[in-house]
Amino acid sequence: MDPEYFKSHEMCWGTLGTVRPFSNFHPDRDVIEIQTALEKKDAMTLVKILTNRTNAQRQVIAKTFQEITQKDLSAGVKKALAGDLEILLLELLMTPLEYEAYRLQQAMVGIGTDEETLLEILCTRSRQQLQEISAAYKQLYKTDLEKELKGETSGDFTKLVLALLNKQDVAGWVQRDIESLSASLSGKKADTGPWIDILTSRDTDHLNKVLMGLELEKGQMVAQALEKNFTGDFRLGLQVLVQCIQSPYVYLAKRLTTTKTQIMQRIMVSHSEEDLLCIRAAYLKLTGTSLYTALQKQFKGDHLQALLAICRSED
Description:
Blueprint: H1 3-8, H2 27-40, H3 43-50, H4 55-69, H5 73-80, H6 83-92, H7 96-108, H8 115-124, H9 127-141, H10 145-152, H11 155-165, H12 174-184, H13 193-199, H14 204-218, H15 222-229, H16 232-246, H17 248-256, H18 261-271, H19 276-287, H20 291-298, H21 301-311
GO cellular component, one term: nucleus
Protein name: Annexin
Keywords: Annexin, Calcium, Calcium/phospholipid-binding, Repeat
């Protein structure tokens, strides 16, 4: 990144996100710069501003843009840009709840379902967040998220997905839960019920104790037990859920090792203000390479500069 970019754009620190509130924020000035950049199709100016403002600040910019120009900012970006950079900047202009709803919709639209993206969101978001995302989904797409998930999944996988969407907070005894999960694996065919009930209704500390106790009792890693006893989408669901219970940052770092632009971009945007620093640290430990360096090997041009700005710095 251009060192002048950092000199001229002061940042506020203090969260686990990489995108922080821009301290000298003047939306009217940003709008004038953006208006000129859209007319000239100056992608770098758009990147410089939109990746260095928080989502809340971008919403103010979009509102101010509408008031000053009587035009929609997203429509302007669509007209001025194309390709991956256009998609990225449009995603940055969505509110966080709209964005998660959009990601879920995109995972289900068209032929086939992107089960892992559904699982990623359902496993890493809290009950309250999922309720808010469901409300945003209904407002945007005029249909119930739960109904859509039912239509896109089947069998035990449907039960797991709906239990994740409607997470409960039920107190449990660690030893009793260990015994229930252990017993579920003892028969000829594994019983899916206890896995769904327990793993979607206890807090993370409790579940980590349960999973550790199960490994001691069974003499094998939970991942091995899942591989041996379950199949298909349900197995994938439990694998993702267990990884997210043990370390959501490691799971998301693994997702970022994919070469799929869409997956990398959407995780980075989704977590840029929450915990991307933690995901970056997990990525470095997992791969031996920083995310900042990995992006430079895979992407180029203005799109690369935008992703680097969201990633923010080398580790």
